[in-house]
Amino acid sequence: MTTIAAVGDVHLDEDAAGRLRPALGHIGDKADVLLLAGDLTRHGTVGEARVVAKEFSGLDVPVVAVLGNHDYHCDEVAEVTSVLADAGIHVLEGDGMVLDLGECTLGVAGVKGFGGGFEGKCGTAFGEPEMKSFIGHTVAAADQLKSALAALDCDVRVALTHYAPVPETVAGEPPEIFPFLGAYQLGNAIDCCDTALAVHGHAHFGSERGQTPGGVPVRNVAQPVINGAYARYRLPT
Amino acid sequence: MAEQSGTAPHDRAAELHRALAEDPRTSELGVTVTMRGEQVHLSGTVVSAERKAEIDMVVHEAEPGLRVTNDVQIVSAAEPTGAEDIR
Ligand SMILES: [Fe+2]
Ligand SMILES: [Fe+2]
User: Fold this and answer.
1) Alpha-carbon distance A48 to A71, whole Å?
2) How high is the ipTM of this complex?
3) Are A73 and A44 in contact (CB under 8 A)?
4) Which terminus of chain A is more solvent-facing, meaning fewer CB atoms within 10 Å of its CB: N or C?
């Protein structure tokens, strides 16, 4: 049995520093790994990244993260990523890593992902360059996720994204904005491999539970959805 | 604002929603704005009481004449009690 702790959309900045720390002190008793599903900061500044780094460093479990759209806002992605990496947080973007948890090996493939929408109600790479570039980013992210999942040599495989791979876990949001919340291509990527669990954030008004067309459990761990410091999922090994 | 009195309520709500997202003091995309006459209702979640107050401030500056009901909730940062067994 492996226990995954996961949270997204903590949206930390200098004023919110230390908010989650009391709940993280004994996380090793509760989980084997902590996954961060993006939107770790409010504006994606280096200063905010330092707050995130402090919040999630020195824990007794490994921490694996993807960034979210808020973490891209100030165009400091490389700097934000290195501040987190220096604090021991593994930041994934189109790649994966395998953790040896003793009882089993856990592989995590991560990508921010993007919008585009879900089957039958989605954008296509047609027309203006802006539209082609929008959907092009979605398709590239899904392709990266698929390759990263396939490359993992491990016992248990988990997919980590910021954007949603299925519409079920964005239910609760206005349907008009679904195309900005996730994309079906991410769900198809998750289905390509034997994935045990997919975790995402971004849809603050969404729902916690859903599954891909191939039956992989999907969990929306955006903090407003789980209403706690993190959620815990036990996976058979 | 006088020039907005003829604007449809959903356009004014959309403008407020955009202000809350784009104003660097808030940067909140997760707030639902509903207008009824000169009343505005705000719902959603934020991480602290300060952020809830900042939302009030940005809405008030954009539309000083509105009566604001701020029902935004503050999200819990508590340790979870249970765990879900997957399959
Ligand atoms: Fe978010
Ligand atoms: Fe987001």
Assistant:
1) 9
2) 0.93
3) yes
4) N
The reported pLDDT for the residue numbered A227 is 95
Q: Structural domain boundaries of chain B?
A: 9-74
- Cβ contact B80–A236 (<8 Å): no
Mean pLDDT, to the nearest integer, of A80-106? 97
For residues A223 and A23, the answer to whether their CB atoms sit within 8 Å is no
- In this complex, which of B45, B77, B85 lies closest to A204 when CB atoms are compared? B45
CATH of the domain at A157: 3.60.21.10
| pLDDT tens digits, one per residue of A136-145 | 999 999 999 9
How many Å apart are CA A192 and CA A45, to the nearest integer? 35
Which residues, 6+ apart, have CB-to-CB distance to A120 below 8 Å? none
- Taking the CA of residue A53 and the nearest CA in chain B, the distance in Å comes to 17
The alpha carbon of residue B65 is apart from the nearest alpha carbon of chain A, in Å, by 27
Strand partners for A37: A66
Q: Spelled out in words, what is the top-level CATH class assigned to the domain B9-74?
A: alpha beta
Q: How far is the CA of A235 from the centre of ligand 1 (A)?
A: 26
Residue from A205, A221, A225 whose CB has the most chain B CBs within 10 Å, to mutate = A205
Q: Please give the residue range of the domain that contains residue A22.
A: 2-235
Strand order in the sheet with A2-7: A90-91, A63-66, A33-37, A2-7, A231-235, B84-85
The Cα–Cα gap between A229 and A222 comes to 10
Residue from A4, A163, A232, A237 to probe the interface with B (highest B Cβ count within 10 Å): A232
d(CA B20, CA B78): 27
pLDDT above 80 (res B4)? no
